[in-house]
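Hello K.,

You asked for the raw outputs rather than the summary table, so here they are, unedited. I folded two proteins back to back in the same session to keep the settings identical. This is the first:
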Amino acid sequence: MADLDQRRHTFHVAIENWQHDFNIGTVVRNANAFLAAEVHIVGLRRWNRRGAMVTDRYQHVRHHPTIDDFTGWAATADLPIIGIDNLPGSRPMETVTLPRECVLIFGQEGPGLSDAARAACSELFSIAQYGSTRSINAGVASGIAMHSWVRAHAGPPPD
């Protein structure tokens, strides 16, 4: 972890965990792959680590019991909270550059971002979809958003 800490990027990711979401492991694995500064789990502390494929040993994971705890941390860290959800009024992520320093927050599978999380977001972005499904998996959405950040700010990985 110490080696990775020397190269971590300046974005964080957060996911709400009010219903014991199974996508958290995938979010943690994606955060490790894209070298996020930290993963924030908002809500329940317990999550299914199988999807992380042991990457949680190499990724900083912080728990916030409530959205207020999380938003207080983000304010202290001077990081804007950017919501990724296909809500009415969300701007297409494909048309913007994500901020260099930010927290990307994802809602749960099904309900998406809670009302409290939406209210805490400085901006809301959606990921373009063209098929018949209402939404893509939160773990998949996290990978797309992190890749968008990397394309804008990190460039190609070292050899």
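The second followed immediately with the same parameters:
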Amino acid sequence: MTSTSTPFPPGFLWGGATAANQVEGAYAEGGKGLSIQDVMPRGIAGPPTEEPTEDNLKLVGIDFYHRYAEDIALLAGMGFRTFRFSIAWSRIFPRGNEAEPNEEGLAFYDRVLDECEKHGIEPLVTISHYETPLGLARTHDGWVSRAMIDHYARYARTLFERYGSRVRYWLTFNEINSVLHAPFMSGGIVTPKDQLSPTDLYQAVHHELVASALATKIAREVAPDAQIGCMLIAMPTYPLTPDPADALAVMRADHLNLAFGDVHCRGAYPGYFLRHLREQGVELEITAEDRETLRHTVDFVSFSYYMSLCESADPTVKAGAGNIMGGVPNPTLPASEWGWQIDPVGLRIVMNQFWERWQRPLFIVENGLGAKDELVEVDGVRTVVDDYRIAYLNDHLVQVGEAIADGVETLGYTTWGCIDLVSASTAQLSKRYGFVYVDRNDDGTGTLERYKKKSYDWYAEVIRTNGGSLVR
């Protein structure tokens, strides 16, 4: 049934999310240098290329670089209160190591912010969203090198000084815990994953965590009104059977993800993580300055949520396909066309877990359904009848409301890919998430015209009623 009562608080930040490398295009315009994404034509499904290739859909994306005003107006038409976007590091520092930023790149984001302000949309900015400058990746092997901390700090300070009075909400790194599973995409680490030593991998993790805390420290000096958040992949994990060994496997899997939030919220490494490093034979290089920097903790915790997993201690049980985090498929749950299991209740579970653990406000900054949409004509209007997406989002938002009713302090919710974009994992455009259909295909053909899907008006009503129109 539909209820007009709503647990969502006044001022709840409804909106949507994108990433620069998946929407902007214009990869060689405006003084931009190459990022790792410019040589990832298959996403994480294939090896990087030496140079950009024509089959890399991200080189054009959906042409947001030229169409940002039109696109932000479309988002405003749904009543968006917030818009999450990222800044392309290599637009600001083309090679990553310049002493001075690229003014043309900075001016582009000034124009994006102008459009957000024009429509009364609160910007939510990701500083680094899977787009390490290619120059830094190749020079330093990405975040394996301590030199990356200073490069990132210069970049973050530049953003805070330029936009600090215009942007309140900031995220330091997108899905920072993903570096364990996708080291090139997440950490700019050129060494192939199967050749990367545990010491180098976890040293890269440490450098990112220090850089994140340093950005928080800089923001409090330069932009004291800013709210700084970490961003994690949330992956609630269940034991496959009641066997205590499976429950222990769940605890270990959880620990590897929760450690990133523990450091961001508590300012030090938890004992279980230090034990994991010892058992891996890893001795991190941690300076006294590092330890002091890590004490600068975040104001809120943001996260992506797409699916849950199971874990088993049985080595013969196979992990599921299509998920970079591994895990075992849950036999009780349906799955999307890309094999991602659909579990709305898992969102309520993980929200309670995070709130109880860290006591920081939460912000759901990615959630959505990737699907193959079909553009059709209804009453003379081209659209997509995406009832499957409406059902998915409705059911997840109902669980967000339940978590809020449980007492979980929640700032907002931004659907992933609110306008169709190039998938990070597969580099496809046919894996669509948006309320707005973009006419571009996996072979690069299409007009780039925008069309509102059925879900566009549905989400507009959800926002207008502050969640009151959701079907419970």
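The chain has a mean pLDDT of 96.

Happy to rerun anything if the numbers look odd on your end.

Regards,
P.
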